Amino acid sequence: MRALYFDAFAGVSGDMTVGALLGLGLEFERLRAELALLPVGGYALRAATRLVHGITAVKFDVDVAGQSGPHATHAHPHEHDHGHHHDHAGAAHVHEPPPPADSAHGHRAWGEIRAMIAGSGLSAPVQERAQAIFARLAEAEGRVHGVATEAVMFHEVGAVDSIVDIVGTAIGLVALGVEHAYAATLPLGSGSVRSQHGVIPVPAPATIELLRGFPIRIGDGAGEMVTPTGAAIVAALASPGEPMPPMRVTAIGYGAGTRTLPDRPNVLRLLLGEIGAAAQVDALVEVAATIDDASPELYAHALAAVFAAGARDAWLVAAQMKKQRPGVVLHALVDAAARAAVAAAILRETTAIGLRWHAVERLVLPRETITVETPYGAVQVKIAVAPDGTRNVAPEYEDCRRLALERGVALKLVYQAAIAAALR
Questions:
Q1: CA distance readout (Å), 97 to 36, 40, 48, 114, 395
Q2: Sign of the dihedral through C-alpha 126, 129, 131, 137
């Protein structure tokens, strides 16, 4: 699974996220072209690299026609500065069409924005990601202000910025193949900010609403460190309280904010990497019988009968029985539905006069079987993947044995050739 890790030691906002995605490899021209599919205009995109405390980061900006001062990134009730707003330092402008006439009313309802995204030429995966982020933002704003989600109104200037940041994030996630995200503990800052309704505390009410269940640090950082748009992105992509599994990092991107922070570089660091598929846990029944009076010649036939009856696995373990006689314990792992059939097979095919069972759980790594070509012929190989991405490669014994006999070579040579082919 390809995953994204938000190492947000300086917080997170929409424009910082898009900047970090550009740093990970999202092409600016692809971003611009796909954003142009939306019926939104009157803005210009800029992206330029800058050094922040010696770290090369991408500063992404959206210049909105007629906008003065810092851009807002969320709904109508708040127009305060989130601290990560776009600045106007020089970089090449990419101008978009003028704003459509129907935007003159100055506000957009969440339902209108949703319909706009759905009616665009954007791919279904991009639409799905963008809708999910915007929905989180609208739901949080609705809860904070006591209005239905559908009734949440986005200020026109703020909505343009939010649409570009959120849809731009969705474009980057799809372009980079991100399937899931994880987040470090988020610093939420301190102090207060001025909104349309007066002074409100940091973190903003919508931000804290969005981050229910996520690990946070209130009071860490001066000013607002996580914007509502940034919180919505994290909340839509990651799961609260989900631990970060081992990841093999393939790319690192930094997105720059605007302010100069006194205690840390104002950048968002995103790590892109591969995570092994999660192991599966099966609920099974273990059936066991002790045997001390059977000929060893019966055991191979008995095991075959147990497998035929539906056992997932079966094995023999040597045991010292009562009266000091050597014996064996026959074990079988079965689904609950197959327990009776497997028990009957054991009692029928061995000299056991009783058996026992108990419920067990089995951890199973995801695996697949592939066929590889070797100098000796085709071999089936089973590949299992551990949570940290480590692969276990196991050639099929019967295939290797058959080829070794046919070609007159050592069995181990066929094994080695099959493993080498699978690793390639």
A1: 8, 8, 22, 20, 59
A2: negative
Q: Transcribe 15-52 into DSSP letters.
A: HHHHHHHHHHT--HHHHHHHHTTSS--SEEEEEEEEEE
Per DSSP, helices labelled H in 68-123 are 110-118
Length of the chain counted residue by residue: 424
Question: 3-state DSSP call for residue 113?
Answer: helix
Nearest to 333 by CA among 361, 304, 365: 361
173 token code pair: 């996630």
Provide the 10 A C-beta neighbour count for residue 406: 11
Rounded CA-CA distance 225/337 in Å is 55
Q: Which helix (H) or strand (E) holds 74?
A: none
Q: 348 pairs with which residues across the strands?
A: none
Distance separating alpha carbons of residues 386 and 323, to the nearest angstrom: 44
The CA–CA distances, whole Å, from 371 to 3, 36, 374, 378 equal 29, 45, 10, 6
Which residues, including other chains, have CB under 8 Å from residue 397's CB and lie 6 or more apart? none
The pLDDT tens digits for 279-291 are 677 899 999 999 9
Would you say the pTM of this structure is higher than 0.85? no
Burial (CB count <10 Å: 0-12, 13-18, 19+), residue 359: exposed
Phi and psi for 238 in degrees, rounded to 5? -110, 165
What's the order of all strands across the beta sheet hosting 216-218?
216-218, 186-190, 223-224
Give per-residue pLDDT as tens, 20-62.
999 999 999 999 999 999 988 888 999 999 999 999 999 999 9
d(CA 22, CA 30): 10
Q: Measured between alpha carbons, how far is 258 from 60 in angstroms, rounded to an integer?
A: 10
Q: Look up residue 316 and give its two tokens.
A: 């023999």
Check whether 232 has a pLDDT greater than 90: yes
Of the candidates 67, 49, 17, the one whose C-alpha atom is nearest the C-alpha of residue 167 is 17
